[in-house]
Amino acid sequence: MKLRSISALAPGVLAATALTLTAQTLPVIRTEGSAQQFILQGKPFLMFAGELGNSSSLTAAQADEILPRLAHLHFNTILMPVGWNQIEPEEGRFDFSILDHWIDIARQQNIHLVPLWFGSWKNAFSEYAPTWVLSDTKRFPREISAEGLPLEILSPLGKETVLADSRAFAALMRHIREKDGSQQTVLMVQVENEIGFIGVGGRDRSEAANRLFAAPVPAELPMYLDSHRAQQPREFLDQFNPTGHTWKAMFGDFADETFMAWHYGLFANQVVKAGKAEYALPMYMNAQLPAPFEHGGEYPSGGSYPLVQGMYRAAAPAVDFYAPDIYWPDFAVWVDRYRGAGNPAFVPEARLDDAPGNALYLYGEARGFGFSPFAVDSLPVEAEQEADADPGVANVYGVLSVVTEEVLEAQRKNQIRGLVLHANSPRPTQTVSLDGFLFRATLARTWPARQLATQEGAMMVLSTSPNEFLVVGSGLTVTIVRDPDTDEQVAQIAGVEQVTRQNGQWVVERVLNGDQTDQGRALQMDPHAIRVYRVRLVTYPRR
Ligand code: DGJ
């Protein structure tokens, strides 16, 4: 039933009914057993996602070429920029024709969309604000550098700016509800993009900002942080003094960055609230992550990454969650930091070249609902699978779409693990423990030369029934032993099959044994293709 038809009914009793229906039917992120899952039309949904390059979605025609290609490569969700300057070229005049075409083509291709609201900020800068905003620096003030120069960055302190951005975002959400509320091609929305101050000193030095920076910190901020200490990182707590009154006294070395985070957070909260009042899809914010030893201002200072995420949580309760753009090698570390801060595992941007292994980590070990490498429109249609090439993202999504139900169930029951191993990983072996067994993985090697057969291997292990597992992965040799903490039994491989599913039925593609299982002692995965292996184990007494 559509919302409009509900609200036309009698008030009172029906108001409650409308609320219930709205809450049930809108997409939502919900804790289901051991996982935070994305619920679409009442059912958990895994996003096999990718983000488009910045210049790939600003014409309608690009949808016709890009979306069919990505559907062929097994993507079911595409993150796409929607620029403020695109939808509101003149103040108050909105044009959603390009977005509408993308939604129409996405539907034809069975693809979902996650619009990225490039509003006041995109990678710190304000390039996507319309000309009528950028040209009126009195009404829409800029941030000021340490040298006193205006930057190409709108100030979060601009009262008219937050109103204008909120109005545009509300119009966008209203339009999406009207066009898509019943079909839900659009799943959720990213608000702004990699917010933060770029420049020496890591803080806006406008008069307004300097005045606020010298004034007492709003009391609700230290109160919030003090009562949520467990979610704050140790390096933040080392500097945090809840009884200091000024930003400097309270936040020490992080004063500039916490100040910016608080004000960006207040701005984002207002934008998100305006959008949700029209259409309450889940809304999240992404962040650029600092490289080691980088200083706030070299990366966008005051973005919503874990060091200052507490400011956002205090200032922006309307934001549903925060997500990392992970281009650094320590993918798992950042995923785990974000989860530790209470976020569901969703990665809106990551490197395309090591996507397959990181996808397995994200859906497996992190029990995440979405992984989205960047610039996926650059993939050629034949990227599906090339013999002897390393597996690509199309390969991993194609295989994961075969085991989606098993993955979702194993996430809920905490019966899934995952790992990624690189030729330059600190140790050559990694182990995960699941349901009484230890799965010890090393990178696959050639025979007889014993050279590394690949530079990366990854797997996801799911427990499906006692002593039986599905292992999804490539490039690893996995030995399996009984976990000595379980009992005193010994484990042995009883059978390995390479399987797939056709028309809902499992089909055995190959039975692996002899040289292919090192005489029954190991699961030896294909170094060049992600596959699904069904592994049966037996255990017997030690003596
Ligand atoms: C992060 C941004 O969010 C993206 O829009 C893009 O600029 C990538 N960096 C790098 O190309």
Layout of helices and strands, plus pairs?
Layout: H1 3-7, H2 13-25, E1 28-32, E2 35-40, E3 43-45, E4 47-51, H3 61-72, E5 77-83, H4 84-87, H5 97-108, E6 112-122, H6 131-134, E7 142-144, E8 150-154, H7 159-180, E9 189-193, H8 207-214, H9 220-227, H10 234-239, H11 247-251, H12 255-278, E10 283-288, H13 309-315, E11 321-326, H14 331-340, E12 346-347, E13 349-350, H15 355-365, E14 370-371, H16 393-400, H17 404-412, E15 416-422, E16 430-434, E17 437-443, E18 456-465, E19 468-474, E20 476-482, E21 489-502, E22 505-512, E23 523-524, E24 531-541
Parallel strand pairs: 4-5, 4-14, 5-6, 6-9, 9-10, 10-11, 11-13, 12-14
Antiparallel strand pairs: 1-2, 2-3, 7-8, 15-18, 16-17, 17-20, 18-19, 19-24, 20-23, 21-22, 21-24
Helix pairs in contact: 3-5, 7-12, 9-13, 12-13, 15-16
Structural commentary:
The chain is of the alpha/beta class and 543 residues long. It contains 17 helices and 24 strands. The strands form five sheets. The chain has a nine-stranded parallel sheet. Helix 3 packs parallel to helix 5 (97-108), helix 7 packs parallel to helix 12 and helix 12 (255-278) crosses helix 13. Mean pLDDT is 94; it is low at 1-21.
